[in-house]
Automatic annotation (TrEMBL):
This is Phage terminase large subunit. Keywords: Viral release from host cell. Residues 339-492 form the Terminase large subunit gp17-like C-terminal domain. Pfam families: Terminase_6C, Terminase_6N.
Amino acid sequence: MAANDLQRLEEILAFYRTQPNDVRRALAQRATPRMRARLLDVERQIAMDRSPGALAAVLTDRREMQARHLHMVDQAWIDMAEGREDRVMLSMPPRHGKSRRASRWGPLWFLRKYPERRVIIGSYSADLADEHGAWIRDAIATWGDFLGIHLNPGSKARNRFDIAGHEGGFVSAGIGGGLTGKGATIAIVDDPVKDMADADSPTIRKKTWDWWQSVLQTRLEPDGAVCVIQTRWHEDDLSGRILAEAEANEWRVIELPAIADSPNDILGRKIGEPLWPERFGADHHAKTRKRVGERVWAALYQQKPRPPEGGVWQRAWIDHHRTSVVAFGGLDMARIVVAVDPAGGESAVGDETGVVAAARGYDGHLYVLDDRSASMGANDWGVTACRLALELRADAIVVESNYGGDMAKQIVRQAWEQLQRQGITAGLLMPMVLEVTAKVGKRLRAEPIAQLYEQGLVHHVGTYPKLEDQMVTWVAGMDSPDRMDAAVHALTELADPDQLDTGLHTGADHRLHGRR
């Protein structure tokens, strides 16, 4: 093709790129097959310019996974690149594509589109940060001709490389490491926390903060942007400290819990809707929640970290006043109750029914006697509660009835009748069934009981690790698990001064009135 023809072709292709979709479509329909092939290449280039996700779709022939929340990551990159955002905080659960999209496809898209600019990535370790660098470097080496950028032959290290013929490039480092040399237009801090042990370490949190202040931020260009990407671990992790130290409106916060827990969900999800249902459905998350425990679930999956000791209970209040089965055996009890918080009630845990027994002594002290909570259906929890009531000679079974109405009472009656037919009740009368309707928030119900723990008036007879872990890691605003709710119902029933005239003078200030 003659030089004039080549020039003319380039002018046509350049004109084509500037046209809106409908005009480009009409031009392609009228083009010759050879020209149409060239226009298809231009369309791919236009698509790759749009976003990191679009670039990924083109280069992987649409094999790269896409999702609504990943489109939000794409938009954050676009806004940083085009100067509309300079502080972005992104938190979402593990295995939801945040690092792949934000720390790999994002920088690749940015360097392709702006080869004069530079990217920095920092992570809790140099190895992790370098893995991102190696991926981006290898992607440029593999698709360079199609991307239109190549690596500088003299700068191809996984932790530092430059774009041939341009000023742009990439640098990575672990937190605590140096970032000498050229600055960055966009700096990414991805996974600044290794694990829970590091998150709980004040020394490591301080080291991370010092690096953030004295190293990373000093490398930003005047028009640069920074993005912090993580699953949350601790209320004072890097994201938490930044938000505590900075003006709230300085940061665009993209918080994406695994399960929507707010009517103002950033994606418009309904409460209870998973973040990525095509990969991780509600059943998967329920199993994960049970497997990892409440603290890890709240922090890593729901992006609501809480301290090792929650804001309502302290473990010392339980440990310092614990009593043994032998010591308890010498005491007389005024009342014994079994409390049930059925799965699917107010708690969003949804996979356990809380069944907890408690007693009240004539001295006004309260005792947690047993925890039979488990994943079970209505008939099973009814039988479990009745069996426990029989074993302890309980005078009442307290049942959360917010979501069941008279159904809860009927379940207990049917379970008792079943045990009667089996000859297990030994002629004993069925305990009273007291239906509890929660009229106020969980914190208002839990706080007065926690105060009784603090005063040394509640004693655990033996140890109940799962129940106690739920208590000491729960803070207001989080969904409270069913074991804890059942314990609160039992102790509230026993501590209510209207229920018994003797003992418990600490209730005289009416803290426990109207708590249901």
